[in-house]
């Protein structure tokens, strides 16, 4: 089992490094499909994501490609959103004892959403024209930004998915940013969000620490290898294939 998890970490890390597609949308459904309880899969993935996003955040901070004002404003909505999500799961489990079913179904629907969001980014991301939201200042979009943070934060708290992919689509449409800054800001915010959600899930006993360590041992070399090959790979084709697999996983979970 340990060897299988290490190999899974290598494959997921490799695909993330190669295509940039979010690790959670690949890892969480795989963990569930191999028999890990949905709540453990979500909590474990969040803590794993938190650690991997830390390294990305440090690198982008060095490159000065993080818009910390936007990170702060998104976090003003996303952190309360993720707290509400975890409380929601805890209450439902106390009263109805159906936490696993809620997570599994929510995960299925969000995977479908992420699959379509990834396909949209591949085929139409470069065609998005400047719109009235992008022309407004961040302060003028304060309410909208916090609301986006809260809604997507709630989704991440329940499913562990979307801390990167869904926020990236929102930033692509609503904010005018150069690609490197969009990626850096997305990763930095995802680190704070995944860390908060991971700690909350850990407090509920929803984290398998051995699983986290084995996944990290596999994914770190996987990401490095994938990143080195990313410039030579047909990333859009691979993203389309992965999005299709994520869509199938979502339908299977539902």
TrEMBL record:
Cellular component aspect of the GO annotation: plasma membrane
Keyword Membrane belongs to the record: yes
Protein's membrane topology: Multi-pass membrane protein
Keyword Membrane: yes
TM region(s), chain numbering: 5-24, 70-89, 101-124, 144-175, 187-204, 211-230
InterPro entries per UniProt: TM_pro_TauE-like, TSUP/Inactive_protease-like
Pfam families referenced in this protein's UniProt entry, alphabetically: TauE (PF01925)
Residue stretches in coiled coil: none
Superkingdom of origin organism: Bacteria
Major place of residence: membrane
Keyword line: Cell membrane, Membrane, Transmembrane, Transmembrane helix
Location in the cell: Cell membrane; Membrane
Family per record: Belongs to the 4-toluene sulfonate uptake permease (TSUP) (TC 2.A.102) family.
Annotated protein name in UniProt: Probable membrane transporter protein
Organism: Paenibacillus silvestris
